[in-house]
Amino acid sequence: MNKSARFLSIAAVAAFASFGAMADEADASQFATKFDTSRTRAEVAAEAATVAKNSSTVPAGSRVLAFTSTADRSAVSAQAADALRSGKISAGEIGSL
What whole-number distance in Å separates Cα of residue 4 and Cα of residue 17? Predict the structure, then answer.
């Protein structure tokens, strides 16, 4: 009786599990996107060209602000060298602070 009960329970589980295995199509047509458009290739290319001209390299929604410096490059380099000599900024991998 033990073997027949085990067999029947396995058969019942297999039959129950097979109901969820029914797929749509073998070619995955349920994932295909269908487009119906009346625009020409030239119209799409023209729109893509204007978008590329008007777009920015800054990602949409970022908080990057444009900053224009008024400092002279040689003055900033001199300040950095002075800070390094006086020990105000670290040098090397370990640093000197």
Answer: 20
Residues in CB range of 89: below 8 A, 6 or more apart? 80, 83, 97
Q: For residues 13-26, give the mean pLDDT.
A: 65
| CA separation for the pair 92, 47 (Å, rounded) | 51
Handedness of CA 30, 32, 38, 44 (dihedral sign): positive
- CB distance 64 to 58 below 8 Å: yes
Integer Cα distance of 26 and 49 in angstroms: 39
- For the question of whether the overall pTM of this predicted structure is more than 0.85, the answer is no
pLDDT in tens, 43-85: 988 888 887 776 666 666 666 667 788 889 999 999 999 998 8
